[in-house]
Every structure is written in C-alpha cells, then in structure tokens.
Amino acid sequence: MARRRGLWWSVRVDLLGGGPCGELWPRPGRVLAVDPRHTLHRLGEAIDDAFARWDRNHLHEFEFPKRSVRAMEHRFIDDADEEGLLDADTTALGDVADFGEEFAYVFDLGDMWRHRCTVAPRAIDPMKELGILPDGPLPYWGWGSIPDQYGRQWDGDDGQSPVPAPETDPWPWAGAPDPVMASFHVPGQYTLLRDLPPTPR
C-alpha cells in the first residue's frame, strides 16, 4: 500500500487486563497513528508490538459493537463463514470504525488480554505528530508499565523460585555508583522498593 500523508487516525489503546495480572489499574496505554486503510491484521500487530508481546502464537480478535461485527484472520480458524465475522487480513479499520468510536481488541483468546480502543474525533498529520510517514500503524505516545504476557519478572521465573539477588558485576561501567535500591513491580498489584546491601568489592 502506498504511503500517504494526512487523513491518518489517532487511536488510543488502553490495556484493561488479562493473563496472570488480572484487572489493571492504573491502566497502561498507547496512542497509535493509523491510516484508516490499514488492515485490522496490521493494527493488531502494531498493538502487540506496542505492548511488548513476544509470543505471538495466539489468536486475536476485534469487536465493533456499533456495527455488531467481529474480525479475526480467517486463515487461522475453522468456522470462517460465521455470520458477522470479518477477515482481519482484508478488512481495513476505516471499513468498520469512524471518528470518536470505541472498539475492542483481545490478544490471546485463552489469557484474554483485553484492550479498549478509541478513535480520536479528528484526523492527524503523521508528519507533525511523528516526524515521519510510517509504513504501518505506529505508537507515538504512551504511559504505564507493560506487564509480561506470562507474568515473568526475570529470566527463569517459574512462579515459585525466590527473586534472585542483584548482579554484583560493575554496572553499567567500572567505577559507577553502586545501586542502593531494587524495585519489584507487578503491574496493577504492587511495587515493592527494597534497600540493597553494599556491593561486595
């Protein structure tokens, strides 16, 4: 698809919750610049990028309540002839939404990472908002901590092992000040600050 300037939409995406994190509050969010000609498949990939999903081997789904339709990639499902189920590979955002409207996006129909998407009431110029004319939907604003899709806090987290001690190697360079505090953060649940002992020399 040829890139064009102007007539792009600003879509706010709030992550409501899902997976091991349950309901999130405050809710992390991202704002994406989207050409209304972009397919829902490309929008879904951009949302997953924006929320740091690294395991993409899951189905996702859009729902547009004002039009009573849903959308998924037909190539991944058996019952693609279901009434009101559009093909996300061929359906453009502008075909099913308009300025000021809300719709839903769910990533992983097992863990149900739920998002509320809101189209801004007016178009944007991507060159003014982003400084570039992107190839596809792209986030340009955001807030909040993004939870790992499986709730892992460190490499090797199995849900039972204790939090490992901080590394004792010089960080981020030799002679840098020692870390004095560690932050253990579970989005939507708690943030625990813990003083650290002096680094062994």
Automatic annotation (TrEMBL):
This is Plasmid pRiA4b Orf3-like domain-containing protein. Residues 151-176 are annotated as: Disordered. InterPro entries: MM3350-like_sf, Plasmid_pRiA4b_Orf3-like. The lineage of its organism: Bacteria, Bacillati, Actinomycetota, Actinomycetes, Kitasatosporales. It comes from Kitasatospora cinereorecta. Residues 30-120 form the Plasmid pRiA4b Orf3-like domain. It comes from the Bacteria.
